[in-house]
Amino acid sequence: MCDSHHIKPRFLNTDLHDQEHKKWNRRSFLQALGLVGGGTMMLNGMTLSASRPSPLAAAISDSPTDRIIVLIRLKGGNDGLNTIVPVYDFDTYSNLRPTIRHQMSNLYNLTPDFAIPNFMSDLQSMWGEGAMKVVHGVGYDNSSLSHFAGSDIWASTDIENNEQTGWFGRYFEGLYPDYIVNPPEIPAAVQIGSIGNLIFDGNSNNYAFSVANPNQLEAIAENGTIHDMLNLPDCTYGEQLQFMRGTTNTTYTYAGTIHEAFSNSENSVEYSEDNLARQLAIVARMIKGNLGTKVYMVTLGGFDTHANQFEAHQQLLTDLSNSVKLFFDDLEVSGHAQNVMAMTISEFGRRPDENGSNGTDHGAAAPLFLFGPCLEGNGFVGEHPSLTDLDNFSNLQHSTDFREVYATILQEWLCIDPTIVSQTLLGQNLNTIDLGFNCETIIDPGDPPVENFSHFVLYNSNSTVIRINNPSTQHTVVKLYDILGREISTLKNEMLLAGEHSILVRNGSNRGLSNGQYIYRISAGNKNYSKSLILR
Would you state the pLDDT for residue 34? Predict the structure, then answer.
């Protein structure tokens, strides 16, 4: 815990550090309750039809490549210098870290200039097989030293940290504009851990099937539910427990789909009992069982190594190395490995110099790992940061913008049209980088969405208003549903002229409405859009 960290005051305000950890945990708690994003929680008990996906969503589902990205979040801020050791400047490295440095005799040289610790022997094997690359010095200008802000920036791609949606959340929002009423038949993404992270958040939905830990996902995958409904006590308490467990089970919209994929496959290698290995073992079975989900995120925590770093960091990197190797060995047996790539992300690196507690404090740039036989060769990408030419806060300067890595993954791995990639990354025109893969055919996005059509909810002191910006005159139907999916009333059914229109929800309904959460759906032209709102 951060309360026991020994942090030098000149680098980190301890009170602020603890406060932002609490804020981070608060969002995690809210999202776990379905109050942040909350696509699946919101649809509890709703009878859903099969989704009619957008042309782009259909194109991705039917894509012959079936490419999958697995994000491995190294939560807490990984120390890059003790992961990829710059042996070309070993003296400077050693002087910066007299206590926690790796000895040259304990390193394995990937190239004459860079090495990894010997305990990461499984990655030595992947490097030798041409299934590993490292991007040097990944970060952004004026890197935040806050866990919370740093995580948000890496998830949102907004380095000013004003955006509250994630890059994959925006991407899925474009694919599934009617998601809240008509979600896809398979999870858009599967997330284990990192509850509260923005990465899959859209403007009003979280697009990932999210569980807090592998225990929950194992229960769902094995049984189709998270809670056992049998062997309950035969009394009032048992009835109440049955109701609560049943309610919780039904919130997991995709539990049956995940259970089916899990049951149709098995692991071909023996994974360790480490947390990351267990997560990747489940992901492997979902991939091998043809779940169809193209984006996964798993989490390995513990990288906030302010004190006594050496042994703890060694264990974390050993877990990473071993788990990733087993994962790809497993997929190789079934013939899936070539279509899967894994990538590490972390909210920041660590400082180049050690602190007074045998650890490292929050820093800036760090290496990013890519894994998989799809890379077709090992190598380092970009320029390693100088150990002497530091930024104004004495941190490593980045040489590769993390958003360029994202752009490359979207465009060259998932084969998304560059225009959509730019929209997903907040309109930024980013260069792609050569990571060893490319798309021969970019997925055709089909008909573009209606230009400039937008809708959002305004909350005044005594009213809730749906605001529609209509780019052209068209017939528009707005309906209101309760959170069980039952139609409550039609708020609007008429030709709406081009321009801005406001619908007062209570006034538009033909019946009295209780306070609480509702869903509205707009049908305009041949497009459907949906969001949630609250009456109070």
Answer: 35
